[in-house]
Amino acid sequence: MPVDDHGLNLVNEFITTNGIEKMSLAAKYDVAKNVMIDTLSGRLRTPQAHKIILKIIDDFKLR
């Protein structure tokens, strides 16, 4: 299941605008730091990466 680029852009814009660190998100979602970094950069396109992006979108009500 590929990561949706629009959703990925929403999440990256949100964390940049709000000054949220990727390491903080990794800790919040109990994901390894390198997995979170690869997910948010778009390098990791796995079902797990897709779920992480969707969870962030849902938790922060990004639309």
Explained architecture:
The protein has one domain. The protein contains four helices and no strands. The chain has helices at 5-17, 22-28, 33-41, 47-59. Helix 3 crosses helix 4 (47-59). The longest helix is centred in the N-terminal third of the chain and has 13 residues, at 5-17. The model has no long low-confidence stretch (mean pLDDT 93). It comes from Pseudolactococcus chungangensis CAU 28 = DSM 22330.
Short description:
This protein has 63 residues and is mainly α.
Layout of strands and helices, then pairs:
Layout: H1 5-17, H2 22-28, H3 33-41, H4 47-59
Helix pairs in contact: 1-4, 2-3, 3-4
Shape, please?
A: globular
Counting H and I runs of at least 4 residues, what is the number of helices? 4
Q: Return the average pLDDT rounded to an integer.
A: 93
Secondary-structure-based class equals mainly alpha
Determine the N-to-C terminus distance.
20 Å
Given as residue ranges, the uncertain stretches (5+ residues, pLDDT < 50) are none
* SSE string, helices as H and strands as E: HHHH
From the alpha-carbon coordinates, what is the Rg to the nearest angstrom?
10 Å
Report the count of strand segments: 0
Helical fraction: 55-70%
Q: What share of the residues does DSSP label as strand, in percent?
A: under 5%
Number of domains: 1
* Most strands sheet: none
Protein name: Antirepressor
Q: Which terms summarize this structure?
A:
63 residues; mainly alpha; Antirepressor
